[in-house]
Write a structure and sequence with these properties.
The protein is an all-alpha fold and about 180 residues long. About 65% of the residues lie in helices and about 0% in strands. It has one domain: Hypothetical protein af1432.
Length: about 180
């Protein structure tokens, strides 16, 4: 069962702590924005879209909830040691979140992961991250790689085209569309 007392601390957890941007983002804001993207992205990729949509939406709203206990660990650091994965899994258990949802392989996992990375790119775009080319380029490469991984894992689904169609609707600023075009 979800530890509601801890979960309700999500608005107090700050993201992007090692990147200077024009504004801060809370964990709660990020998860809500990921949920909105998944809500649009899942039916674009998966038909019939009712298959596991509820699971994907639940995962979108809880995928980083463990960060109320361990903070937002930058992805550039997470990959350096398995200890960070163990730390996050321990926090998920303490939060009352089922670990099975948070491991690679399922279609909902990949849709949420793509939405998670896309939301990060969108936030960077909106909060001045284009001025941080190292972070911006790392995030774009991460999104491209996740789409390729999802396609390799679930080749019967189309991942790239629907993803870019949904992302293109997120912001009408020509600079955003130009940045997305670099990913194609």
């Amino acid at each position: 069962m979800l530890n509601l007392e801890l979960a309700l601390r999500a608005p107090d957890v700050k993201r992007w702590t090692i990147v200077s941007l024009s504004r801060q983002q809370s964990l709660a804001e990020h998860q809500y924005r990921v949920w909105l993207i998944v809500r649009e992205l899942y039916p674009a990729i998966v038909t019939p879209h009712k298959f596991d949509l509820e699971l994907a939406l639940e995962l979108a709203l809880t995928h980083d909830l463990h960060e109320v206990l361990c903070g937002d660990i930058p992805s550039t650091i997470k990959g350096t040691s398995r200890a960070f994965g163990a730390l996050e899994d321990g926090a998920r258990i303490q939060m009352g979140l089922p670990l099975l949802l948070y491991h690679e392989g399922t279609v909902p996992y990949y849709v949420v992961k793509i939405a998670d990375i896309a939301e990060g790119l969108l936030f960077l775009f909106q909060a001045g991250g284009l001025d941080r080319p190292t972070v911006w380029n790392y995030s774009k490469e991460k999104l491209h790689g996740m789409i390729q991984t999802a396609q390799a894992s679930h080749g019967s689904l189309k991942w790239g085209g629907p993803t870019f169609a949904v992302l293109g609707r997120m912001v009408t600023d020509p600079r955003w569309l130009e940045a997305l075009g670099e990913l194609l």
